Amino acid sequence: HGYINSIGFDMYLRLLEKHSNEIKGMKTQDLINPEIDISVDAVIGENYVNDENLRISFYKRILTAIDQKNLSEIKNEMKDRFGKIPKEGENLFEIGKIRLIAKKLGILKITSSSASVQIKFSSDTSVEPSKIINVLKNKKFKFIKNDLLEVFLDIATSAEKNFIFVKNLLHSFQ
Fold first, then answer.
1. Closest C-alpha to 100, from 37, 46, 147, 33
2. d(CA 102, CA 106)
3. For range 78-90, the mean pLDDT
4. Is the pLDDT of residue 154 over 70?
5. Strand, helix or coil for residue 108
6. What is the reported pLDDT for 1?
7. Which of left, alpha, beta for 25 (phi over 0: left; psi -120 to 50: alpha)?
């Protein structure tokens, strides 16, 4: 009872959940479902897949893809069934790739605006602070909290360029 009061109930529950999952053989990264907020059109258009239930099914499968191979299989299935995937559909798969990399790195959330990119790390991220500093040595950045990184972009960029920046940044953290 005194231990719970000293660290707080919320933290106690997180530690308990983490320990319970370790006993079950689950890594904490397996439980992370990163939120990706990048201002880019990323949809399966009605004019591409006109059946609403099928579109929803594809969204769900893309969101829950377990690895790059699984994502590629879904993409190939869409191409086989409906032809060339429009740009906004390709963007959806790129966000799926970003989500998978973020999950692997222990990143909880990525938010992008025209001026900066914010990355919220989980408490047990695999990204070392020294790696972040090395990767961003020529960029302006700051840690807002221990777990929240903000990288400032040199000039206000388009959503498309931001998208590419985020992908490259995550790849360099691996």
1. 33
2. 6
3. 95
4. yes
5. strand
6. 47
7. left
